[in-house]
Specification:
CATH architecture of the largest domain: 3-Layer(aba) Sandwich
Helix content: 40-55%
Structural class: alpha+beta
Radius of gyration: 26 Å
CATH topology of the largest domain: D-Maltodextrin-Binding Protein, domain 2
Number of strands: 9
Shape: globular
CATH superfamily of the largest domain: Periplasmic binding protein-like II
Distance between the termini: 44 Å
Order of helices and strands: HEHHEHEHHHHEEEHHHHHEHEEHHHHHH
């Protein structure tokens, strides 16, 4: 299916195809009669029909990556199977679970889930997906033997549970510092800020420099993992406590909250630290943003590779912390799938380490490859030298720590959004200690409620 089709168009086309097939069946030509005097030849057995293997994928992923191109190639080279891609739809996961429970599942794989986030654990614990190890081992596809050994160890670990591998990632993202080299260069900064203190210093200079053009020095984005959560990661070698929550109430995390508010209160960021950041960034009115690493490529596409680059985030102290939060964009083999092996074979054919075209497209969309061998492309292909910043992302994730295997991070994000807003309002009397305590109290209560 073309990635430009909406689900309604897909269903319309599917209906038209079915009607056409029915009409063709009704008007099928009668078998030709043998000429007089000649013996009628016995009918040849029909070739076995290719097995249709259905895979659900988010439309944004199919828009970014050439899943359909490699599905066509796979179908041409694997006559026994026909991969059929379909965009996910509202409530698709509920329908998949209902079909699994009823024993009539029509799809074999689905995505996109995020490893090192809450979605892949939710899929695993709910029984929506199954382990992939046996299917990877049984695959005859080129690259199958290297899939797990070539994967960046931290990324691989984020897809594992109880010694099994559950989510096949095709790229990863982490939180990075995306900055305008021309803007920072104008105030004498030829390298990204190394620490929070350095970040504040250069942001204050940028505010003065850009005031006439209404250029804003820096920004966060709303998500916990890209704002204060990233700062906590950058301060602590282990950002999680025994309760599997971020260590909100330690000195470094309190300093992270206070530093965040300083950025906002001094007007170094948009209101609240992020309001309207994307429009500002794409209009050339934002000098830097702490966000997903792909946002640097967005800036490069808009302004040029000589004006925007991506670096590791500033840390609490120089070299401190545990990298940043990260996640892999994963596809899972569905539980009780009708055709798990050909689905796995297609995923390896498409996303495996041997497919250099896939790895290059991945880089060009701003997503970082999951295979260690892919980084050789950056080092050996002059056209991909512009993605050398991905080496830093790989190194940062190499020393990072996956979130605990639960949904606690997303629960914390909910209450962080609530109390962060109160904390950074102009003139707010709430202290960082009170903000942190409120997040922990409400998150703990919600977790206890879910467990009863």
């Amino acid at each position: 299916m073309s990635t430009q089709f909406s689900r309604r168009q897909f269903l319309k086309l599917a209906g038209a195809g079915a009607a056409g097939a029915a009409l063709a069946a009704c008007v099928r030509a009668q078998p030709a009669q043998a000429p007089a005097g000649e013996a009628e030849q016995p009918a040849q057995p029909a070739a076995p029909a290719a097995k249709v293997v259905r895979i659900l994928l988010d439309s944004w992923a199919m828009g970014e990556m050439p899943f359909d191109t490699f599905a066509r190639e796979f179908n041409e080279t694997h006559p026994g199977s026909t991969i059929q891609l379909q965009s996910t739809f509202e409530g698709w996961d509920t329908k998949v679970m209902a079909q699994i429970n009823a024993g009539n599942l029509e799809w074999s794989a689905g995505g996109i889930a995020s490893s090192a986030s809450s979605s892949l654990p939710r899929w695993i614990l709910s029984g929506m997906v199954q382990p992939m190890d046996d299917y990877i081992k049984a695959s005859q596809e080129k690259g199958a033997a290297e899939v797990l050994s070539d994967m960046i160890p931290t990324i691989r670990k984020a897809s594992e549970h109880e010694g099994k591998f559950w989510g096949f990632p095709y790229s990863f993202e982490n939180i990075s510092f995306n900055w305008r080299t021309d803007h920072l260069g104008a105030v004498g900064a030829t390298a990204p800020p190394a620490t929070w203190a350095d970040w504040l210093t250069v942001a204050r200079e940028l505010k003065k420099w850009g005031e006439g053009e209404k250029i804003i020095a820096t920004s966060f984005i709303p998500d916990l993992d890209a704002s204060v959560g990233a700062m906590i990661y950058s301060a602590l070698s282990n950002p999680f406590g025994e309760d599997m929550l971020l260590k909100w109430e330690v000195d470094e995390s309190i300093e992270a909250l206070n530093t965040y508010r300083t950025f906002v209160w001094e007007g170094l960021t948009p209101p609240h630290g992020f309001d309207g950041w994307y429009d500002l960034y794409m209009a050339g009115k934002l000098s830097s943003v702490q966000a997903q690493s792909s946002r640097g490529v967005w800036g490069q596409l808009a302004f040029g590779t000589d004006k925007v680059t991506t670096s590791q985030i500033p840390t609490y102290q120089k070299g401190s912390g545990a990298g940043t939060a990260f996640w892999g964009n994963c596809i899972g083999v569905l539980n009780k799938a009708p055709d798990p092996q050909p689905a796995m074979d297609y995923l390896i054919y498409t996303m495996g380490p041997q497919n250099e075209r896939w790895q290059k497209t991945c880089m060009q969309t701003g997503k970082t490859p999951v295979y260690q061998s892919a980084y050789k492309l950056i080092e050996t292909d002059p056209l991909f030298r512009q993605y050398s910043w991905m080496l830093g992302m790989r190194d940062q994730v190499d020393r990072s720590m996956a979130r605990p295997f639960n949904n606690y991070f997303s629960i914390q994000d909910t209450y962080y959004q609530k109390y962060r807003t109160l904390f950074v309002e102009p003139g707010s009397a709430m202290t960082a200690e009170e903000c942190a305590a409120a997040i922990v109290k409400d998150a703990t209560a919600e977790i206890a409620k879910q467990q009863t």
